[in-house]
Design brief:
It contains five helices and two strands; from the N terminus they run H-H-E-H-H-E-H. By secondary structure, the protein is mainly alpha-helical.
Length: about 90
């Protein structure tokens, strides 16, 4: 094998590996938002099956009044399932 062919093969293999690695890294960065069941499981500190505003953090706490459709001061599994999906910003 000629020297130039060898270096071309090495360069091609390296670029291929970099491309594959970058693709996996981008896929890894994409995460689905947690389901309503997962939210309750993660945030329900007193384990009563519903979420009070004190148990919440992040954007869901800011939208509490919108999601709490029966206005009982708690978010039920049904209310979380029917909650409007958050709007995502554009990628830069």
């Amino acid at each position: 094998m000629k020297k130039s062919s060898f270096y071309t093969a090495i360069a091609t293999a390296t670029l291929t590996l970099i491309t594959i690695q970058t693709g996996f890294a981008q896929e890894k960065g994409k995460q689905e938002p947690p389901s309503a069941t997962e939210l309750i499981k993660e945030m329900d500190a007193n384990e009563d099956g519903k979420l009070s505003k004190d148990e919440l953090k992040g954007p869901i706490k800011n939208d509490f009044a919108t999601i709490d459709t029966d206005e009982d001061g708690f978010l039920s599994l049904e209310e979380l399932k029917n909650a409007p999906k958050p709007k995502r910003g554009k990628k830069q």
